[in-house]
Design goal:
alpha+beta, Urate Oxidase, 2 domains, two-stranded antiparallel sheet, 5 helices, 11 strands, globular
Amino acid sequence: YGKNTIKFLRLHREGKKHFVKEVEVCAHLRLTSPQEYLEGNNSLVIPTDTIKNIVLVLAKKNGIPSLEEFAIDICNHFMTTFCQVAYVKTYVQEVPWQRLHEDGVPHIHSFICVPDGIRFCEAEQCRNGPLVVFAGIKDLKLMKTTQSGFEGFYKNEHTTLPERHDRILCGELFCKWSYGECKDFDFNCIWKKIRECILEAFAGPPDCGEYSPSYQKTVNCIQMLVLSRVSQVQVIEVVLNNTFYNVVDMKNLGLTNDKEVLVPVEAPYGSCACTLGRK
């Protein structure tokens, strides 16, 4: 049991310069006894309102240097404070506020919300067990308008899809990875590096791109690049929900449409997923 969607903004000031972290937290516990379920005995139950207040107090006292460190703080607090807690799981996701720049100059106290992917993390721990930390990015919308195709696929009497050697590749990406033993990691730096790997593997070199023969291959390229460059990542899951575009037939309008006007296919849409880990 626990508390969902604990939303708050943490404001940190350094002189005139302000820093913000707006997050949503879910914290769940499992107790050593199920007596509240079986007997209606609530003597060990930590109220969910107390759970919410603990999260807010920890944000006030310790700040949020990174989502992962904050999630670890929450797990550690429940494990060290309450002997009746057998398991704790914390999920934290961030609202994507970025500092506003005017003529290249960073503003000291103004921010803009940029929907370029939502950062999240999870931390969970059993009593006398290891602390496990996951991190990720979701709702990251990506598109490239060429250097993508889909050919040579299996065909039978139900196949109507034509082969394509030049198409738009577009999708919404979910990526989640697990760390090994968490030491003194710079979680913020690692997250930014993994995001850069995702964008690089998806797009290819900026002057020419890189051909993608399938969504599946693109997913694998993202995973392989992350594992090759970020040693702290042990297992990485990528889900790519595909958006397809059809070229509008404008012959009846007396126009030739050379893939200049397209409409998205709302449903059904494709999805591919893969989980890849080190040996």
